[in-house]
Amino acid sequence: MIAMQVGFIIYWRKKHKEQTTIRYLIAGAIGFMVSARVLELGVHYFCIFANNPISWFINENRRS
C-alpha cells in the first residue's frame, strides 16, 4: 500500500513539476491509507467477529 502511494507521488511530481506541493500528495496518501484501514476493520468486524449468520459461516469454514 505504501509503495503504491510513493510510486504515485514520484509519477505525479515528474509530470507536474511546479503545479503542486508535496504536502498535498502526502496528506492524500495518508488519508487514503487511514480510510482504507478503517473500512477494512469494519468489514472484518461484521464478517468475522460479530454474532451473525455470515460470521458463523466464515468461522465454521475456517475451522475445517
How would you portray this structure in words?
The chain has one domain (2-63). 83% of the residues lie in helices and 0% in strands. The protein is built from three helices and no strands.
Task: Please write out the topology.
Elements: H1 2-15, H2 22-49, H3 53-63
Helix pairs in contact: 1-2, 2-3
Look at the structure and give the mean pLDDT. 80
Strand content: under 5%
Which structural category do the helix and sheet elements fall into? mainly alpha
Fraction of residues in helix: over 70%
Number of helices: 3
Order of helices and strands: HHH
> Cα-atom Rg, whole angstroms?
19 Å
Given as residue ranges, the uncertain stretches (5+ residues, pLDDT < 50) are none
Largest sheet: none
Label this structure with key terms.
64 residues, mainly alpha, 3 helices, 0% strand
Q: What's this model, at a glance?
A:
With 64 residues, this protein is mostly helical. It is built from three helices and no strands.
